[in-house]
Specification:
- The protein has 109 residues and is an alpha+beta fold.
- Helix content is 46%, strand content 20%.
- It has helices at residues 10-23, 40-52, 64-70, 91-106; strands at 28-32, 56-60, 73-78, 81-86.
- The chain is elongated.
- 9% of the residues are buried.
């Protein structure tokens, strides 16, 4: 609590920024690469925290393990088209299948 922000590591700054954002109890979180600079324990805490979160989460991440743990829908945006899978469009199994296909279309997951 007494450490100056300028002396913090990237992970400490990320955790602080996330805590500040959640303090106001937002209805939606927009997370762009939230696992950057976090250690494994912090990533797992984020997974648990988002599972309990009552609002909506829009997430961009290259961490496929994290995406598989947290997400229920995949929105593939490209060429002016949005394709949605999982969630209310086929459920978790549909998400897992579509996410695997999506990953394999880019590079092997």
């Amino acid at each position: 609590a007494l450490q100056k922000i300028g002396t913090m590591s990237g992970g400490q700054k990320a955790r602080l920024a996330f805590a500040v954002a959640l303090f106001s109890k937002p209805h939606i979180l927009l997370l762009d690469e939230p696992t950057n600079h976090l250690d494994i324990e912090s990533i797992q805490a984020l997974v648990v925290g988002l599972a309990d979160y009552k609002g909506a989460v829009v997430l961009v991440s290259h961490n496929t393990h994290y995406v598989r743990e947290v997400c229920k829908e995949l929105w593939d945006v490209g060429n002016g088209v949005v394709k949605v899978s999982g969630g209310n469009v086929g459920g978790e199994d549909e998400f897992a299948t579509q996410f695997t296909r999506y990953c394999e279309s880019l590079t092997p997951c």
